[in-house]
Write the structure tokens for this entry.
Amino acid sequence: VRFELTVNGERATLEAEPQELLLDVLRDGLGLTGAKRSCDVQVCGACTVLLDGEPVSACCTLAYEARGRDVTTIEGLAERPQFAAVEEAFVRHAGVQCGYCTPGMVLTIASLLESGELGGGEAEIRRALAGNICRCTGYRAILEAVQELTAA
Amino acid sequence: MTAEATVVERAGAVGQALPRVDAVEKLRGRAQFVGDLSVPGMLHGKVLRSGVAHGRIVALDTSAAESVPGVVSVLTGADLADMDPYYGHAIRDRPVVAIDRVRFAGEPIAAAAAVSEAAAEAAVRAIRVELEELPLAGTVEEALAPGAPELHQGPQRAGLFHGLGELPPRDGNVCYRYGLDRGEVEAVFAHADVVVEGEYRFPAVYQYAMETHSVIAEWRGDEVTLWASCQHPFLVRAEIAALFALPLSNVRIVVPYLGGGFGSKSYTKMEPITVALARKARRPVRVVNAVSDSMLTTRRHGLVARMRTAATREGRLLGRDVECWFDTGAYADNGPRVVATGGDAAPGPYRWEAVRVRADCVYTNTSPAGSYRAFGAAHLQWIGESQVDEIARRCGLDAVEVRRRNLLVPGEEVRPGGKPLDADLIGDVEKVAEAVGWGKPKEPRTGRGVSVGLLAAGAHPVSTATVRLEADGNVVVLVGTTEKGQGARTVMAQIAAEVLGLPLERIRVPGADTRFTPYDRSTGASRSTTLAGLAVQRAAQDLRDQLAEIAGGDPDPAEYPELVVKRFGFAGGELIGTGEVHPEGTGSYAEGPVFWEVCVAAAEIRLDPETGAIEVLRTATCADVGTAINPQLVERQDEGATLQGIGNGLFEELVFADGVLTNDTLLDYRVPTFEDVPGSMRCVIVENGDGPGPWGAKGCGEGALAAVPAALTNALADAGVPMRELPLSPERVWRRIQELDAPRGQEDE
């Protein structure tokens, strides 16, 4: 099937099989490898991208579901002004280790910050981010970074 | 005792919590992993895995698969007739793909290379294989039973890097046996006031590096290049060279960023099958495992152990007797070293009159087990430490006090012929105990526990490094250590910056590439900062000495470009410093380890007796690192290991039924999330300057994973529920509570 969508602010026309996943189209078709494949079952969050601003697992989203919609990947988010504060907080708290979960984690956090869904409470932050697994950091550094961002 | 060693002149980079050099590219999604790379003409490879745990291949027909559109070639055991197809760094027991027989459910039987992943997948599905099931040894008990099917026949062949001295012949399904005897065990137990004993079980666990095993292989004539998600590129290079009968120089391994390792990418994994597939296809091939594939590629060993410990009624530890069996699965992988490290950890760091350890590495018809962070120590520490606590309870002693009376002190023998103790364990355990409120009143249904152990760390001490000063005064550090998230590139840059008096921005540390980066044995066993770091320090010092000679005195970093011009007569050329670390003795396992990694933690938990659920209120770990090159990275290592310790201790478990893995997705295999973070998680950094690395540093990052499950087990016992099987899942704890006649947890003291 052939359809249009917006990726990181630019209109794109895609030619994809009906069963093709958004993750594969982004990575292989468009060369946007920031979204990572890991669990394949919507548990780990490494493949997170924003669809009309909402975080989705691109490993379990058909490319066709994105037709006419607005997709933001980490490559696009990194160009936006609100990224700077998130980046700075992650760097200062060493919230990055291997970096494999990082793009998905940052996209989820950025969208929650933007929508104002994150209050300052730690329990709330933990619940909101439980769909993004990080096996390296033990989460503490990321929690500190997010608490700082919500307090700002 | 080591205080004077901490007074070290530092120029500024070492000891600072400098930002990671790779943070920005990782945050922006620019950091590349093997699965993000492609090479021109590259095909995609998929693997057909056995659904049967033990069987004979009766028929294998690939003709339908070969005619799937887009398929270039299909690899089977028949394609390996021109080579010795067995590999394994410890024991050369594993064929590149199954030959005539499968020994575990998940073993590669064939692989297909095609122009797309979908075509390769379709080809794999079109392969027709007929298997005749063979008698099964699905567990250690089954594998050791009289008349058990033997997984391997013929003489046992040592691999290139087993590193354990003379490898004894196989005994039935036991491929390696560790033994330690000191003193008269039976006599000590016969006269002891207190003896505690029990049988214990530790489950198989999945490392879950979020990036799965991924390899690209490209042949050009008689040279092969691999882009591989491997922690130990130089050891993989040697195994590929041996398998395909190539000179080492004709095998090139490039390692970009690794998406986590934790031991799962140590030694050789998916590289041989990918290289063989590319050889047959005559085109580059990329194989990227699904998580379900990687779960069958490697795992942590399950363990069955019997242990008894003897003490006086005053709580003086006398003797320990351990028999244990590690389930290494169908192929040895790193099993022998895991078992040896477990054997070393089994006594615990105490002053014994007698110790006996028997540890066996047992083949079973399950997926192969290898390295996972803190292996050996993670298996045995919780057992030994729960017995020390039981003795403390029986003697009416405080758990910290009994350790204070019995722990080894620096300089004492840990095991005969090995490295003496190089850490202040009593100080370490006192610090973590204090951090969880030891001795203060407890809430109802809560418990506190501590644990202390040692992990043989450093592996074989060989590392080399090159530091190049470019004509513009910038520096490139070439070192074969791989960056898997631990922060190696940052730490290496800090070490070079310190010696050369340069800011971090002037120093580049690219990834490992065996064609250009000098030899480093491996990235594991907490060795990078200590050994590769020492090589970098020496290389930078060598460069600095050259600069001093050119300058005729102490070189000024601002004048490095002029010094290059002074040497070469133009604004080109480069100065190259080299550094090497080699063993002071033979480097053998028996003479080791390079250092004893400290495994010390404390925990406080709350038990819900109605459900058996455990809430982790507080943890504290001790990073006894000699010198913290980057204290923030040290803390982050311990925090990551703590969460893995919570997973290993409380809920992670691979479940096999008749040898078949039943929970092979992240839906059924739960790893810790944000919601599992303890209320308080502290890392106490101890800097006694007592390590063999640069500025007295020694490695860290594994100890907490051995110590935290042990501290949790002891905390649960303190809350009234002693356990002899991990993980401490709610169901298991609840059942134990029923057995113990439903105690309602320990009341305030």
Remarks:
- Strands of chain A lie at 2-7, 10-15, 48-51, 54-57, 70-72.
- The longest helix of chain A spans residues 102-115.
